[in-house]
Structure of Glycosyltransferase family 1 protein:
Amino acid sequence: MTVTVKKLVARLWPASFERLPGKVGPFTFSSTDNLVVLHFGDTPTLDYYWKTRFPTALYIDTACEKSDAELLNNASAIVLVRHISPVWQKMLLAESNSLPPVLVFFDDDIPGILNDPHIPFVYSLKTAIRYARALKIFDKICSSVYVSSDGLAVKYGLDDQSVLGPLPVEPTGSVLSQNDGPVTIFYHGTASHRREILWLRDVIAEVVKRQPGVLFELFGEKPVSKLYQGIEGVRVVHPMKWQPFLTYSASVSYDIGLAPLLDSPFNRCRSHVKYYDITRASGVGIYSENSVFHTVIKSGENGLLVKNSVQDWVDAICGLVQNGNMRRRMFENASAHIVDLRETSGARG
């Protein structure tokens, strides 16, 4: 489907749906809270934003758990993560007069997802429809809204207290790659990073020419394999669900991780979880300069911030390939920084 058609659909979509739930009030979290966290499926959102902070909360997967109001009896607050099943929505609405505070949390720009023509259309339309159907219920039952990034807060007029940023899922126990073989570089972008996957092709092709023997690993299905076919040293791995990916990324040992983030409405609202993913896999990260990564990366210390031009990225990658001492120093700084983030935030998990 062409970008023009996607933009037309976005223009026809009712503007009344491009907002967060109407009631936004204060809520102060406490380590003693008896939280009940409702979600749909097993996603990284749970680990990065909630289980690191509230490991003893009751987590209920509404995709498979039968709705039961009794499960909420002892809750001091209820958290809705992204979306929940319609059956649970209806139950919450029916019980709304007796519920504790209900909070809703978004880690992507779900209300505005159709405005970005670069997100796969079927995914964005499905997400938008699901959100539109739930919005009236969220309006009635939710007392607070939390988001994952300053970009989301600014877009929807929320204050700093409404931002709940990501925390490292686990202590960084990885060590810098001790591989004596070729330098290995990876980009584990999902389908929502399709534009970055396309953009990186020219970068990777040029790096391979300048640095023969370098290896690259990307995530993707057949179209990605076809796109990179013919570039020596590129391996395309089938995408994984969250828990297998978490195990996989903690067991491998790479040298350099890539996190390009091309400017778009959706990307401006993302958070910096790729920083944690790259460091967990023992890599030193190269990140887009004009993006959320500037909030956690000091270029040259715990990673590199690079302008989004093919030549700048080629030069940055080749420079790191050639300088093992720089990679070691920046990886050690990133690991120490992530441990510090966990300790100062009180993260657990």
User: Anything to note?
Assistant: The chain has a mean pLDDT of 91.
